[in-house]
Write a structure and sequence with these properties.
By secondary structure, the protein is α+β, with helices and mostly antiparallel strands. The chain has six helices and 24 strands. The N and C termini lie far apart (53 Å).
């Protein structure tokens, strides 16, 4: 509506005045003008072709990084117009999809990774997945949804400080079941301005349900439809904020240009993650230990098109919250990263100068590395972790 457009323009201009998004805010006003122009040139509201490539794998086909394989349930397959020229690149993973799905509100969901919580549901519908260490050096996931829908997502667990910050980078909805004291206080301050809080033990509760087939607290589940509905009720716009920073994407390279790295092994304290490159699909198959990771929802092995290993300072601290040993992650600043894609490994730098800056992945030239279209896994590991690639 015209009222919503004016609100979005006011938000962008406000970000310019307040510096809400750091370097991104400087371009917010220009971006609003560009988007307005694109809406005139393209009735679907998709990004202008000059700024985002329009070729590459299409959603709904059995290509790497897309869950629309022949045996996938209809709940994971976005509707696709018959003409590829009508498709638009999704904001979070670059996949070409129905323009009505390409710019939906991003939804971040904190997912349990305890052994008793596996297999989890929803990985193969996510555009982006984060895995990071949490309390006791265990790990937890953030599944980030945009163009794909999943009728079951879970088990949902509590949020952590850096999870909320990563959601804030996209002015997203953050779905979780509570959190530690520091995270809860930060969420209370910034909810509604930097992101929308869809907390299962708060006003977001209608989006969740408990499974009787699993033991609490490993049995809280939701769906993308329920989360989007509840986020909008709580004040979120159903579409992505046009002022947020988006990553660049590229098309696949010819198979003759694939690299020779076929295996990536990433150790965590309680498990080892392994990726195996499949040149027939130009994607990485994901394993936990020696077993294929299977998404409980579609019964398919979890895959990734790009894996980014981010090395960050990490320790736990028993003084933050009495009776708990809480995680402390150095997610603000810069550090070493490695990008794995199409059998190649690229040495990189992750950069997040301030609390409100986006996390950028930079190449040796200081420019952002363009990711191949499809699902991205961010593997956050403590500095000194021995990641093996061969």
């Amino acid at each position: 509506s015209s009222c919503r457009c004016m609100n979005r323009l006011s938000t962008a201009l406000a970000s310019l005045r307040s510096g809400r998004r750091g370097p991104v805010a400087l371009a917010a006003g220009v971006l609003v003008i560009v988007v307005a122009g694109a809406l005139v040139a393209n009735p679907f509201g998709a990004p202008a072709p000059s700024s985002r490539p329009s070729s590459g794998p299409t959603a709904g086909q059995p290509t790497a990084g897309d869950t629309a394989v022949p045996s996938a349930p209809a709940s994971l397959v976005p509707s696709v117009p018959p003409s590829q020229s009508a498709l638009a690149p999704a904001d979070l993973d670059g996949m070409l999809v129905d323009p009505a799905l390409a710019h939906r509100l991003p939804i971040f969901v904190s997912i349990d990774d305890a052994a008793v919580a596996r297999p989890q549901s929803g990985f193969n519908a996510a555009s982006v997945v984060w895995q990071a260490p949490v309390d006791g050096y265990e790990s937890r996931y953030l599944l980030v949804f945009q163009e794909m829908d999943a009728k079951a997502v879970g088990p949902v667990r509590s949020a952590r400080f850096y999870f909320a910050h990563w959601a804030a980078e996209l002015d997203a909805a953050l779905a979780h079941y509570g959190g530690d004291l520091l995270t809860r206080k930060w969420i209370q301050v910034h909810n509604g301005s930097w992101f929308t809080n869809v907390d299962g033990i708060g006003l977001g509760n209608p989006a969740y349900h408990r499974l009787s087939s699993r033991e609490a607290p490993h049995n809280a589940y939701t769906s993308t439809t329920a989360l989007l509905r509840q986020a909008v009720k709580l004040g979120a716009d159903p579409t992505i904020d046009p002022s947020v920073h988006l990553r660049p994407f590229r098309d696949d390279v010819p198979s003759s240009q694939y690299g020779s790295i076929g295996s990536i092994t990433i150790p965590y304290s309680t498990e080892t993650i392994r990726y195996a490159f499949d040149p027939t699909t130009d994607a990485y198959k994901r394993f936990i230990g020696s077993k294929a990771q299977i998404d409980q929802l579609d019964k398919q092995q979890v895959t990734a098109r790009t894996i980014v290993v981010l090395y960050m300072p990490f320790h736990t601290d028993s003084t933050i919250e009495k009776g708990h040993n809480r995680p402390v992650l150095g997610f603000i600043g810069t550090g070493h990263a490695v990008v794995y894609s199409e059998g190649q490994a690229i040495s990189a730098t992750w950069s997040k100068p301030t609390e409100t800056s986006p996390t950028r992945i930079l190449g040796a030239d200081g420019q952002e590395i363009a990711f191949v279209r499809g699902r991205i896994f961010f593997q956050v590991v403590p500095i000194g972790t021995k990641v093996q690639a061969s």
